[in-house]
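Hypothesis: this fold can be encoded by more than one sequence.
Test: take the structure tokens below, design a sequence, compare later.
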């Protein structure tokens, strides 16, 4: 039974080849005509040749956010609408892709066609390949170069916004501590001028000793009155004056710490750096990437031949 089925299958295949060979002139003619027509209509007069430029970049100086890798961050930046819209407008891709802005769904059409011409792919070496196709080889190169520039600018703008928030917070904290420091310094200066207070510990020992000597010796006069006045001032305001000095040291240390944080935040805000290392620079392509004419011609010839074969077979079957 199985042998009979095999023989039947073999005979059917042989019949197909015999039928095709019997009609080889028709099939050959159709294939030839289809090939010629495909060659003509895939030419530059009907399909504008496109050139593809590429670059390979590696992420650099990117921070760590959540569980995202630096490569994933760079991919998201490259696919952002900010870079996409900037490239579209700068290179007037509306005209190149022949899309009318006034058309109701022109934006969606542009996004779709943009994705067909410009792509970002991760390589196995943890880098990203940027490709851009255009009818102008120089334009293709310039689009890739501009995407890299726009990437750096977009990341830099985003990073500066983040650093500005940190800078504002640190500036506010630093100024608050500076105000507290100035208030203490003004109080200390005021009491120093008004009551003659300089150093509570040293003055207390010296003034107390001198004042006691005046009392023991029973001396009166200007020196005695001056010593007694300073002694009274130390007794009434000295401890408070001493505490202010202690607070001043603490506040000054805190102020210096906040000043350091502010200067560090300011440095981050003002720094200028790139966020991609260019491993392969974009170049002007000297060979078109599409259309692949031999593939179009071959596909047209095969499709036309198969279609003709099916039509002839059906006609033969019906007439039989």
């Amino acid at each position: 039974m199985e042998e009979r089925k095999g023989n039947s299958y073999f005979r059917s295949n042989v019949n197909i080849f015999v039928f095709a060979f019997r009609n080889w002139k028709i099939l050959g003619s159709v294939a030839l005509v289809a090939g010629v027509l495909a060659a003509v209509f895939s030419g530059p007069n009907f399909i504008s040749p496109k050139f593809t430029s590429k670059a390979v970049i590696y992420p650099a100086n990117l921070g760590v956010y959540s569980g995202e890798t630096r490569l994933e961050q760079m991919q998201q930046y490259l696919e952002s609408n900010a870079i996409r819209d900037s490239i579209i407008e700068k290179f007037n891709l509306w005209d190149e892709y022949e899309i009318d802005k006034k058309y109701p769904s022109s934006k969606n059409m542009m996004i779709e066609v943009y994705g067909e011409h410009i792509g970002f792919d991760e390589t196995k070496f943890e880098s990203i390949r940027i490709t851009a196709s255009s009818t102008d080889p120089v334009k293709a190169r310039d689009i890739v170069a501009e995407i890299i520039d726009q990437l750096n600018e977009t990341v830099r703008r985003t990073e500066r916004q983040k650093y500005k928030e940190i800078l504002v917070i640190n500036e506010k904290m630093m100024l608050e501590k500076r105000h507290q420091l100035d208030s203490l310094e003004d109080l200390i200066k005021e009491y120093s001028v008004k009551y003659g207070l300089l150093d509570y510990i040293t003055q207390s020992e010296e003034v107390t000793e001198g004042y006691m000597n005046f009392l023991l010796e029973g001396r009166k006069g200007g020196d005695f009155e001056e010593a007694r006045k300073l002694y009274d001032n130390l007794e009434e305001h000295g401890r408070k004056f001493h505490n202010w000095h202690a607070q001043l040291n603490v506040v000054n240390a805190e102020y210096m710490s906040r000043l350091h944080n502010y200067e560090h935040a300011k440095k981050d805000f003002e720094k200028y750096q790139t966020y991609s290392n260019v491993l392969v620079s974009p170049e002007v392509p000297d060979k078109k990437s599409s259309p692949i004419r031999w593939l179009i011609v071959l596909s047209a010839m095969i499709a036309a031949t198969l279609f003709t074969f099916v039509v002839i077979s059906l006609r033969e079957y019906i007439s039989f």
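The chain has ten helices and four strands. The first strand starts at residue 51 and ends at 59.
Hypothesis status: open.
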